[in-house]
Write a structure and sequence with these properties.
The chain is an alpha/beta fold and 232 residues long. Helices cover 46% and strands 9% of the residues.
């Protein structure tokens, strides 16, 4: 069985760890994951959602109709665009006046765009539209999928590690401070936000994906459906 080639545009390195662990849970084929953003050779892009914005704007300036049309990306079997749903509450000005002015000059959709949660889907849907506008494409290509955990990838990790915390699980996709909750747990359970600590729990997330993660996180289920469809 040949390896799938997967390209990932993500906010940061801990998000890459969580998304890769999710992919290992439901993809039957082995795969090689290439981190397109953040990318060490392009430090000018930065990280966070602003880095994703800059990456998308660089693609937009190239003028391709879809990611699959870019010769640099055509060898991938799957392309993933990640933003956490909490981005909907941000403003372009959060990344400084130059980014805010760029958004005005290029006619990008206004931010913030957050909607009441629950349901998480009310905010996730306009983020799909926002990503397409950032890329300058009318529709995403057949190999491209979005990954928008609500409110952050930490919700997926928390669902894997803390599924017995029923009060938290009830509205985990609407909790704005999951990373803080994980970092504030008793020492034996504590998970600080670092690639090393998240990687140490990656196997637990993969194992719990089919159970507690998909049970409590609608956007995890949505991501799996989209990714599997894109490679079949």
């Amino acid at each position: 069985m040949s390896e799938l080639r997967i390209g990932l545009v993500a906010e940061g390195p801990t998000d890459v760890v969580v998304i890769e662990a999710a992919l290992r849970a439901f993809l039957e084929q082995p795969f090689v994951l290439t981190q397109l953003q953040p990318e060490p050779s392009q430090p000018q892009m930065g990280s966070g959602w602003g880095g994703v914005l800059k990456w998308c704007q660089a693609f937009r300036q190239a003028g391709y109709a879809a990611l699959e049309d870019d010769p640099k990306l055509e060898g991938f079997d799957l392309l993933i665009l990640h933003l956490d749903a909490d981005v909907a509450g941000k403003s372009y000005a959060d990344y400084g006046p130059a980014v805010a002015q760029m958004a005005v000059d290029r006619g990008l959709p206004p931010m913030p765009i957050a909607q009441p949660c629950p349901p998480p889907s009310a905010t996730v849907a306009p983020i799909h539209d926002l990503l397409r506008a950032w890329l300058g494409v009318a529709m995403l290509g057949p190999k491209t999928v979005v990954c928008i955990p609500s409110k952050a990838t930490e919700a997926w990790l928390a669902a894997a590690l803390l599924s017995n915390e029923q009060d938290l699980m009830t509205e985990i996709e609407c909790e704005m401070n999951i990373a803080g909750i994980l970092a504030g747990l008793p020492k034996a359970q504590r998970v600080r936000k670092s690639p090393r600590e998240y990687s140490a729990r990656a196997a637990a997330l993969t194992f719990a994906w089919e159970g507690s993660v998909k049970q409590h996180c609608s956007q995890a289920r949505d991501f799996e459906v989209r990714a599997v469809k894109a490679i079949t």
